[in-house]
Each structure stands twice: as structure tokens, then as C-alpha cells.
Design brief:
Elements: H1 2-11, E1 22-27, E2 32-39, E3 49-50, E4 54-56, E5 59-68, E6 71-79, E7 86-95, E8 103-105, E9 112-115, E10 121-129, H2 130-133, E11 145-155
Antiparallel strand pairs: 1-2, 2-11, 3-5, 4-5, 5-6, 6-10, 7-8, 7-9, 7-11
Amino acid sequence: VNLILAALVKLSKKVTSVEESIASLEKTADATVVRVMFTGISKLADKHVYSRTIKRDGIDWRVGTFRNNNNLALYLDGRNPTGSSFSACTQLQLISYADASFVHTKEDLSVPKMFTDKISRSGSKQFISFTDLYDEKKGFVKDDSILVAAVIKAYPGQ
């Protein structure tokens, strides 16, 4: 995992806009890991900004973010094109540029969440305060960008 995160930090310089924000995608036996870079963090407003949509296990996934007062909101949006419900264990990780093994997360990957037509998001409106986000010792922001990993264990047949 540390090698993957270190490689992500190296890839971060190649991604320059939110529209091209999917830095990499990895499918393991246990989970799918989507890595995203969001740029222009200092300009975030209350309007939602999304990564490109990717399809895994028949589900359309995208990472979203927005400014929620003094906090960064971060969430994973999952939609089943067939309209049927599914469960998934998800975890969003904010990755430090300074030390790729240092991540900030709020979710327990072992707790399944139900995704439906009406509830298609998992995450937090108060994922991290901007004070903590911009703390230079933590290294989450570099060149006005952040790195996010979304770990997904989807169970579309359930």
C-alpha cells in the first residue's frame, strides 16, 4: 500500500485539472482503489466538484468535494445504472504529499453502506477542517491540490 501511495504522489504532478482528476485505478481481489487529485482547493466554493466517473463492478463511481463553511466535504457517489440497490464498504482517504503513508480518514471500511436511487453517497460534510487541511506539518496540500484515495468493496448483487 505504501508503494502505491508513493507512486500516487509521483503521479500527482501529471494531473492538472479536476476534469482529468483520476490519477490511477487499481483493482485488487478485495477492493477497487480510485485515486483522484483535486486542484484549485483554495478556490473551492459550496458548489460540488466531481472527478470523472469510472465504472467498476457495474457501478458508476465518482469522488466529490466542496467547501462546507470551514471544512472540506468529501464523498463517494455510487450509482447503479439499472436502478437497483447495492451495498458497499467504502473509505475515503486524504493522502499526505509529505508522507504517503500518512492519511486522514473518517470511515470504517468494514461497515457496509446501502446505496439506492435516493441515497447514493458515502462520506462526510466535515471530512477535515481547512485549518488541519492546510497544516504544513501534515502535508495534505501541495500546489493548491489534494490527493484522495477511495477504497471500494462493492456488492452489486445484494
